[in-house]
Amino acid sequence: MVPIRWRGGAEEVLHLLFGFAGRTNRAKVWLFSLGAFVAWTLIIVVAISAVAASDAARPNAAANSNVHLQGVLDAAFVPVLLTLLFAVVVFYCNLAVFAKRLHDRGRSAWWLLVFILGPGLISVGGRWLSIQDADVGIDLGDLCVLIAYGVALWGMVEFYLLPGTAGDNRFGPDPLAKPT
Known about the structure:
Blueprint: H1 10-18, H2 26-53, H3 65-104, H4 111-132, H5 140-160
Helix pairs in contact: 2-3, 4-5
């Protein structure tokens, strides 16, 4: 097992999360994903707790259901806004981490388009084909959905399971190479 080295401290973590140049290994991608999952869980729990703890979440016998619902929606505005802001930051960090992971595999970050947009576009195309060609014999829409799942699975294998290229490549030095 290869130990994870955080030589640069906070600077290296910031580059991992926000920089697009260089390479990163599988272990750091797994750690980032675990951290993002834990952070998402905490954000959701805090947001739901904030709305549930507000006075608007407690039913009032004098208020009708529309007033009660409006109060809950008003109480949820700030937690939902903060959760949306967090989602944008995490999406950007995902792009940065996975771009560096693709660089470690010797691939351009443009492959992110295949792994992010590809499954969605293939599925939408499949739904359109399913509507258009109902009498083909096989449902082309279902076939497209299976292809979309295959592309998504391929992306997961690329990001999380396959080793990076050994030694330096055009994107930088090997992140697992011993420092000289």
